[in-house]
Amino acid sequence: MTGLFSRDVQVRSMEQSVSQTEKLLGQLCLVLAAYTRKTAGLRDKGDQLVGQLLDLSRSEDPELQLGLKNLADDLAMVQDYRQAQVERMESRVVAPLKAYGDIVKSKRTELKKFNADRTRELKEIQKLEKIRLKNPVDRQSISQAEVSAQKASHNAQRSTRLMEEAILDFQKNKLEDIKTIFTDFVTVEMLFHAKALEIYTHAFHNLEAMDLHRDLELFGGRVRAPDFLSSHVDSPVSGRSLQSPNTRGPFREHQWPHTNPIPRPRSTLRKQRNMEEEPHNEEEEEEGQESDTDATPTRRSYTPQYAQVRRWNN
Questions:
Q1: Would you state the pLDDT for residue 77?
Q2: Cα–Cα 20 to 30 A to 263, which of 10, 53, 150, 283?
Q3: What CATH number is given to the structural domain containing 168?
Q4: CA nearest neighbour of 15 among 115, 149, 145
């Protein structure tokens, strides 16, 4: 009976381990699946932000237009890495945890078989005790009951040994899987945040380098009143009125600041294909040439630089 009690304790311990694993890993799977969905939602909002930045850039002057476009390109690249983060989270973190549903069901089936062998052993022992109490002199019935009890006990012991090995393997695999899952989780997060920090740093320097005074001069040139209007306004005291320019003969056309055409945005793929562009050579400006307000900005987003670095490394 001591062996029966010991096996009963074993069964309870095994069932508790399997049930606890099912509960805790199931809850963990739900939380990480929700975490992954939230990350995917953040990726979608980031794509929307990219679209809004591009829309805004089209209505601005060249300096801010280029800065916003480069920022949109950089944010789009961050969302590409976020998409990779979501896919890796689903395959390396959520999927292995979800697989424990089937693993736990398999262990429960093995525990049921073990319980059946243990119950059969208990019944055969109880049957033997009854025969001994009822017919202590019936050696044949007692002998047959002893053989059945020994056979049931042997099956229960073999089942116990197999179940011990199965539970130990289950626990070992669980520990290794948890370690691997969260190592992958941290690795995926580090990869994303490392690349995002690199891209955001580049975007920050691009924004800092914007010369807003250049755009302000262009805007002021469009909204400022022409000089010739003020020269033809007569004083109210003398009774003279404003004369139409058309009645005063030809006059020199007002020279507005020259603005270069806004470059058409290019896709990330096109930028990567045009990695072998000739580098811009900085030359000293000669006297009498275009002023700083007429120079076309040459800042670039992170994407073509990253593609060029990849080409060099490969």
A1: 96
A2: 283
A3: 1.20.1270.60
A4: 115
